[in-house]
Specification:
heterodimer, A: 968 residues, mainly beta, 12 helices, 12% helix, disordered N terminus, B: Pdz3 Domain, five-stranded mixed beta sheet, disordered C terminus
């Protein structure tokens, strides 16, 4: 009965400190972007993705996200001029209207209507959208060549205003070659000075200037090449067209001789060139105009480059991106808001902003949308509440690295960020495949890059440092300039970072990598040249019959290396065999690091730079661990999986705007075949774990604790290690006194060995103090940032295995409590973290809890010290293995996981720590030059337009919203 | 020997005729069916009528199927009274004698001779052969068992595999599949988990209780419906030390069908709310000849306590002594009886076995009635018999 009451109390208190589970914000760069839009009046950027998401970004901290119900790619995004609405076109030919609605002083992105043109699909497939500057009309060019006019936001078809193909073709000059078939509408543009005039560009090349009021063609422009894009110059006098043969033409509007292009050019000509997919010409206040176009590269020699060419006067640069260009736009500044100030380019893997007003056109660093995956993320580590001193030093180190960026402020400044300043400074460290560690400011909504550490300099790698293809040699044509930081190619996979541990109080950092390398680094504000001392540690300890078939160890640079300001390595440990490091921990007070691989673990004294302890955990009969990281069986499986993925991927990328039906059929067949193959019976072996299983010796977790290991009256430093085979080793450490720390040796002595009967991998070890709270981090108490642990009451050992949580007494190890997970619901622990939940009501009250992520993607909170399951929330899809593997918990009840290779989702379980975007976007006051009907962002005039909505799934829900809106 | 199929007598149905046998002596008396009173009173009455006031007794009765079932609490006492038709046949034994395996039952071997007959024959056997010819059943190790026969539908089978200490692998594979269920809307195809392969020589195969294409319905009392193949795999592995699988055998012909010996039929037997496994494990064995005649993997010849020691709590702790050489010794810090023991898992089996058998037979005589439950719960068997029974009936064994 007493036990029951106790549980009741714990439950009650934890509920008061636990928030509900919320996913708050996505950090990083959207996966597979497919469309770009920009509103010069709102100064907001919109990105649509292949998965149907629409994301809006303004000034840092201002972001909105919406998701279309249809799982279709967003192909176009258009802001309604001078309004807070935007229209998206999806792959399934549906149009969606979104708005930014104020609610409780904050803006929300809401879908307020949807529309699909009715008619035969071959004819009414929308290929071009023009959001008319009146804000009331949408012109939709279709595959059949017709242009439909739709009134927005109600999506009412104005049939009498439609521009049919017949109307246009009746007036085509007889000698035009493509007279028979104009093909689809490729482009629709409004005359910047006369909103009644629009130009309709047909796929075959013909362009027609159409008067919307008079409903007649004013001028025909008989281009003969396949049309790619059309641009009407600012003054309305010229039209630029770009074509599939890599040429562009300039045409005079309203000239006498209408049939001759004024100017025509194939910029990278002579040999066949690729299409120029988009062309823009922008004037400047004084001086020559800017001409920007994407593509047009010589097909044979540079057909694989992704380039945007910028020509301004005599300056001609072909910006060479590392991934496919989705779209670009130019932000204009200056007194008349005409001077191009920044070029914003959305490529498949990043957003690049180029300062066009500073000499050399440097890149402006993006405060958000940063490609986390510029090299693939291999691990992450979160550190909460960074002391200001360390924070500033890291920032300063980062500043040195950012010297090549433009000094201009971020040009996209829409909306106001109303989120309160983050209560603390949090750091997220990501380890990458290329051996870099990136430091991110994770305190707020924007995951801002602070500093990048590269570990490659310590080693000799295959890559030649002078092998820099980026800088074009003098006189090269086209004049390439490499831009963007997305670089998925790793010089040497052995450099990959696998484990990171940062001590925020001392500034010591340890990182460990794929080839068994462990680096100790120290923050230095000055650049320094030094030799890094390497220590090879043989984890096999004379184990017989071993044949390592994996990669070789990295070679250390023997000569002194110049390290820039920031974290500089001063000691390197190399495990032998050079297997991937699977566990790593640092105790900055004792100046010790512990590391483990699949062969054993070691303890290294980084003050004396010698190893204290080496323990081989390898089972001699474990052939897989003996041989190396990849068995043959596994690699075949892997390669099969990869090839299937490749097929699938190629299928996705083949999906283009104009889908070939034959291709579709072939794909359907392929899909069916794939599905069948995946349905082939998969069977699972049911077998109890045994000591002979593979990789039982793999070290999963390492932990330092000052606790009662041998007797209940004297606490001593200790090292704990947990293995894949359910074994826990405890070592008693003897540290010399402070004055002799540098010369007397540190010793370690095996004190306990616990073999869990269920033999599940040990993924976490924590010692709980007399109050049942986890022991504080090293130096935490010394810095007065944590209560000293209770050393009076008896300590307990919490061992978290993949299957259960067990609490043992100390120093005599006997089980006290346990919580089974796998035996009950079949889920297994994947990630575990200790968190402190502060109450939202009282400042000083809080509790520690264990955050657990299972292989089913559920987050559990387990109370301490009673190991009772408190709450459970679904968090990640269980199929998303990489998402689950990437999850990292913060010390304050938040967490991050990768939702794509380039994006972190942030979630929160705490009432006190919630980081989410809170922002407001106000409708622009229209100060346009034309006499257009002014849009009214709020009030009655905007409400009446919403009423005649098409019947849609959304409408009922919308009605509710609408009534509320009217009342307000 | 078939005494339990009697024509109801013309006497008042309200009265229960009781025939009580202790040793060679019989006593007859009657009880009011509507007011049976409490077990304590009944126990006192038995001691009184047999004039054995200070003898510790085990009370058993023959149910309608001829099974010998215990009476040791109010619930099963009432059950016995209410099902008596109209004769209630009681068999009393000295507790100390019962410990030596002098009586018991086995629901599964009913085909040859009913338990009841075995018990009745028992004195003859005793005369012919001394009881030590065959090793005591507790010296055998259980390998597998069918349990909860009477609370499961006849089409299902609950199989327990004892992995502990075995060198034999569990030896089976499972796969995804689909099965057809009858729903109010008609037949519905639902995903299910099936046994896909038995490893030759493995535990699963050697029991003969599991077969390829058997559908797995539960693992240790937890339904697998809605769980993925991987989840079920992990659940089975996590429970591998004491795995209880409920299957729907693909071959329904070998099912244990209630033969209806006593005329009660299979459906009625379910109401006894007791697993044959448990009664057998506690009450011992019908006779030595019976025990010997059936295959070893089916009989329930193990002390209850052994299962408790089978719990996965037996983590091995090696404490390093003052010197570097590690000394193996057991942690002996058992302040509470509910604390799991820490013993080397390689420890001699007999040692643990005897501890627990004394424990169960001596001090906690009722725990056997719910052995399957308490084994899994791994807690001190609750002295509250009624509650224990209740939970058994509601949840079935293995549920926590």
């Amino acid at each position: 009965m007493r036990a029951f009451l106790e549980v009741g109390i714990v439950l009650y208190t934890l509920v008061s400190v636990l928030g509900s589970f919320v996913k708050t914000v996505e950090h990083g760069f959207p996966h597979q972007p497919s469309a770009l839009g920009y509103s010069p009046s709102l100064k907001l950027l919109a990105i649509g993705t292949r998965s149907g998401a629409i994301k809006l970004y303004g000034s840092p901290g201002v972001e909105f996200m919406g998701l279309h119900d249809e799982n279709a790619a967003v192909t176009q995004v258009h802001f309604m001029p001078h309004q807070v609405e935007l229209v998206t076109l999806l792959d399934d030919n549906s149009l969606h209207m979104w708005t930014l609605r104020g609610h409780n002083g904050l803006s929300e992105l809401l879908e307020i209507g949807r529309f699909t043109l009715t008619g035969p699909p071959g004819v009414t497939r929308v290929t071009a959208v023009l959001a008319h500057s009146s804000g009331e009309l949408l012109l939709l060019g279709t595959e059949g060549g017709h242009v439909f006019v739709v009134e927005v936001p109600g999506f009412r078809e104005l049939e009498e205003r439609n521009i049919s193909l017949d109307q246009v073709s009746s007036s085509i000059p007889d000698d035009y070659i493509g007279r028979r078939n104009l093909e689809h509408v490729e482009a629709l543009q409004e005359n910047p000075v006369d909103p009644d005039q629009v130009i309709i560009g047909y796929g075959r090349g013909l362009m027609v200037i159409w008067d919307l009021e008079k409903k007649l063609a004013i001028q025909h422009i008989p281009a003969t090449q396949q049309l790619e894009s059309v641009c009407w110059t600012e003054d309305g006098k010229y039209i630029l067209s770009s074509h599939s043969d890599g040429s562009y033409c300039r045409w005079m509007v309203g000239g006498q001789d209408m049939n001759e292009e004024e100017k025509s050019d194939i910029p990278y000509g002579h040999f066949p060139c690729k299409a120029i997919s988009k062309i823009v010409q922008l004037p400047t206040e004084e001086g020559p105009p800017f001409l920007l176009f994407s593509g047009g590269m010589p097909r044979a020699s540079y057909g694989d480059r992704h380039c945007i060419t910028v020509i301004h006067g005599k300056t001609h640069v072909a910006l060479d991106f590392t991934s496919r260009i989705i779209d670009f736009f130019v932000i204009r500044d200056g007194p008349q808001r005409t001077d191009p100030s920044a070029l914003v380019v959305l490529v498949e893997e990043e957003l690049v902003v180029i300062d066009l007003q500073t000499e050399g056109w440097p890149i402006i660093q993006t405060p958000y949308l940063v490609p986390l995956h510029s090299s693939a993320i291999t691990c992450s580590h979160h550190v909460s509440t960074i002391p200001l001193k360390l924070w500033e030093r890291i920032l300063a180190a980062g500043k040195h690295q950012n010297a090549h960026y433009s000094k201009k402020p971020w040009p996209i400044t829409g909306g106001q960020n109303l989120a309160p300043d983050p209560p603390q400074r949090d750091l997220l460290l990501t380890g990458h495949e290329d051996g870099t560690v990136r430091f991110w400011d994770a305190s707020g909504v924007c995951l801002y890059p602070m500093y990048k550490l590269s570990t490659a300099g310590v080693f000799h790698t295959d890559a030649d440092p002078n092998d820099n293809m980026n800088q074009g040699t003098e006189g090269e044509w086209p004049p390439f300039r490499k831009v963007g930081c997305f670089d998925p190619y790793s010089d040497d996979p052995r450099l990959g970072i696998q484990k990171i541990h940062l001590c925020k109080y001392s500034g010591y950092l340890t990182v460990a990598g794929t080839a068994g390398q462990i680096l100790m680094l120290e923050l230095n504000d000055e650049a320094a040249e030094q030799t890094v001392e390497a220590k090879v540690v043989d984890l096999l300890q004379g184990q017989e019959g071993f044949r390592w078939k994996g990669h070789t160890q990295l070679d250390i640079q023997e000569d002194p290396v110049m390290f820039p300001a920031g974290f500089q390595p001063f000691a390197v440990v190399q495990c032998q065999p050079p297997a991937v490091v699977t566990a790593l921990t640092l105790h900055s007070e004792w100046k010790l690091i512990a590391f483990g691989t699949s062969h054993g673990f070691g303890l290294y004294d980084y003050q004396q730079k010698n190893s204290v302890l080496i323990k081989c955990t390898l089972n001699p009969s474990d052939q897989l661990a003996m041989e190396g990281p990849l068995s043959r069986v596994k690699s075949i499986k892997k390669s099969l999986r990869q090839s299937f993925r490749r097929i699938r991927r190629s299928r996705v990328s083949l999906r283009k705007q104009h889908v070939n039906t034959q291709l579709q059929e072939a794909n359907a067949r392929l899909e069916a075949e794939l599905a069948e193959m995946e349905l082939a019976p998969v069977q699972r072996k049911i077998e109890a774990r045994s000591s002979d299983d593979s990789f039982t010796g793999l070290v999963r977790t390492l932990y330092f604790a000052d606790t009662f290991l041998s007797d209940s009256s004297h606490n001593t430093p200790s090292l704990w290690a947990g293995t894949n085979g359910g074994c826990v080793f405890a070592y008693m450490l003897r540290l010399p006194s402070v004055e002799h720390r540098a010369d007397e040796p540190v010793t370690a002595q095996l004190s306990k060995e616990i073999q869990l009967m269920h033999r599940a991998p040990v993924v976490g070890i924590v010692v709980l103090d007399g109050h049942g709270a986890p022991l504080p981090e090293p130096l935490e108490v010394a810095h007065d940032l944590a209560r000293a642990p209770d050393m009076q009451g008896s300590h307990h050992l919490l061992v978290v295995s993949e299957e259960q949580f067990k609490v043992f007494t100390l120093p005599k190890v006997s089980a006290k409590m346990k919580l089974k997970l796998t035996a009950v619901d079949g889920s297994r622990v994947r990630r575990v973290g200790m968190a402190w939940f502060g109450s939202s009501r009282t400042e000083d009250y809080g509790e520690s809890g264990l955050l657990v992520l299972t292989n089913q993607g559920d987050v559990h909170v387990v109370s301490l010290p009673h190991v009772k399951m408190q709450v459970q929330y679904p968090c990640i899809r269980r199929e998303d293995v990489s998402g689950i593997a990437s999850c990292v918990f913060t010390k304050h009840g938040q967490g991050f996981y990768l939702i794509s290779p380039s994006e972190f989702e942030r979630f929160s379980l705490s009432t006190r720590c919630v980081v989410e975007p809170r922002c407001l976007v106000e409708a622009p006051l229209h100060s346009g030059c034309s006499n257009q009907h002014q849009s009214q962002p709020d009030g009655a005039s905007s409400t009446h337009r919403y009423i005649n909505l098409e019947v849609s799934l959304f409408s009922s829900c919308w009605c509710l919203l609408n009534t509320k809106y009217i009342k307000e | 020997m078939n005494k339990n199929h009697r024509v109801p007598s013309s006497r008042s149905l309200n009265a229960v005729e009781v025939k009580s046998k202790f040793g060679a002596e019989f006593r007859r008396f009657s009880l009011d069916r509507s007011k049976p009173g409490r077990f304590d009173e009944f126990y006192g009455l038995l001691q009184h009528v047999h004039r054995i006031p200070n003898v510790e007794l085990l009370v058993g009765y023959a149910d309608v199927h001829g099974d010998l079932l215990p009476i040791n609490n109010d619930d099963n006492y009432h059950k016995a009274i209410s099902t008596a038709n109209p004769l209630l046949r009681l068999f009393l034994q000295r507790k100390e004698e019962a410990d030596h395996g002098t009586f018991g039952t086995d629901s599964l071997t009913r085909k040859k001779n009913t338990v009841l007959s075995a018990v009745l024959l028992r004195p003859d056997h005793n005369k012919k052969k001394p009881p030590v010819i065959i090793s005591l059943p507790k010296d055998f190790r259980p390998v597998s068992s069918i349990i909860d026969v009477d609370i499961l539908p006849e089409t299902h089978r609950r199989v327990r595999l004892y992995k502990h200490g075995q060198e034999k692998p569990l030896g089976f594979y499972i796969r995804d599949g689909s099965s057809v269920r009858v729903t109010p809307q008609g037949l519905e195809k639902v995903p299910g988990i099936f046994i896909s392969r038995l490893v030759p020589g493995g535990l699963a195969e050697s029991t003969g209780l599991l077969a390829v294409n058997d559908e797995v319905l539960e693992v240790n009392g937890i339904e697998v419906g809605g769980k993925s193949l991987d989840q079920v795999t992990d659940m089975m592995i996590a429970n591998s030390h004491n795995l209880i699988i409920t299957v729907k055998p693909a071959n329904q012909r070998n099912n244990i069908v209630r033969s209806g010996v006593g005329g009660g039929g299979g459906a009625a037997s379910g109401s006894s709310g007791r697993s044959s496994d448990s009664s057998a494990s506690y009450y011992g064995y019908s006779s030595h000849s019976a025990a010997a005649s059936i295959p070893p993997h089916i009989i329930q010849n193990f002390p209850v306590g052994e299962l408790e020691s089978d719990e996965d709590e037996e983590d091995l702790v090696i404490e390093a002594g003052g010197e570097a050489e590690p000394i193996r010794h057991m942690a002996s810090n058992h302040s509470m009886s509910s604390l799991p023991r820490y013993e080397p898992h390689l420890n001699l089996r007999t040692a643990t076995t005897s501890t627990f058998s004394i424990n169960t037979n001596g001090t906690l005589p009722t725990s056997g009635s719910s052995s399957s439950l308490s084994n899994i719960k791994a807690t001190t068997p609750s002295p509250d018999r009624a509650m224990e029974r209740g939970s058994l009936e509601e949840d079935g064994p293995g549920r926590r």
